[in-house]
Amino acid sequence: MLTIMGKIPSINVRKVLWTCRLLDLPFELEPWGAGFRDPNVPEFLALNPNAQVPVLRDGDTVLWESNTICRYLAHDTFLLPADRLQRARIEQWMDWQATELNNAWRPAFMALMRGSTKYGPDEIAAGARDWNAKMALLDAHLDRTGAYAAGDAFSLADVVLGVSANRWRMTPIDHADLPAVAAYLKRLARMPGYAEYCGEGTP
User: Fold this and answer.
1) Are strands 2-6 and 55-58 parallel, antiparallel or unpaired?
2) Which of 147, 161, 190, 199 is the most buried (most CB within 10 A)?
3) CB-based contact 65:27 (threshold 8 Å)
4) Are 143 and 186 in contact (CB under 8 A)?
């Protein structure tokens, strides 16, 4: 059985858990991270020197970085097909989520939802504007596809984008009017595991 080291409040852990649920992969969740077991201990650092969750253990295989774990689990499935072009279209949106969208949400989310004092009011406001701008980019893309990030079919890109889109919706900022994103979240809500790992109450 797969062992996932992390905690459900972590957006990066939840994308891995949702992937497992979609693929009917049995797993054991071992609680690590703030509020649980401290990852800054030799036992954990031997697995991930960054002291971050999640970490996946699959027999003797150990992996960290959530999108990498998701790719490993979903390889050559309906979530991440082997076709070179299909896979590239999925992975470009996964990479965009990790590099562009995550950086946009960090100031507003950490201040307003996690109580961080690292960011001042101007930084929070600027972060919210940037976050809305990135979500508007996604909205325009979804309006073109009419369905999912990589086209007509749900894919691994929608797992990672779905948890992020839900985080945007749940954070108390002035939200841009993004009808394609709203419709997208309704489509995602029909997928197995959405309620547990991406729905209301899981920012």
Assistant:
1) antiparallel
2) 161
3) no
4) no
Mean pLDDT of 43-68: 98
Reference 12, options 59, 66, 62, 58; nearest CA is: 66
Q: What is the pLDDT of residue 201?
A: 67
Domain ranges of the chain: 2-74, 84-197
> Which tokens sit at 63?
């992996």
Which pLDDT does position 157 carry in this prediction? 98
- Indicate the CATH number for domain 2-74: 3.40.30.10
| pLDDT 10s digits, 1-35 | 899 999 999 999 999 999 999 999 999 999 999 99
- Tokens matching residue 55: 């970490």
Q: Evaluate whether 149 touches 158 at the Cβ level (below 8 Å).
A: yes
pLDDT digits (tens, 9 = 90+) for 127-150: 999 999 999 999 999 999 999 999
How far is CA 181 from each of CA 24, 26, 32, 52, 145, rounded to the nearest angstrom? 27, 31, 32, 29, 12
User: DSSP class of residue 148?
Assistant: B
Structure tokens at 171: 């954070």
Q: For the chain, what percent of residues have pLDDT higher than 70? A: 99
Phi, psi of 6, deg, nearest 5: 170, -160
How many residues make up the chain in this entry? Answer: 203
Class of domain 84-197: mainly alpha
For residues 36 and 39, give the distance between their C-alpha atoms in angstroms, rounded to a whole number: 9
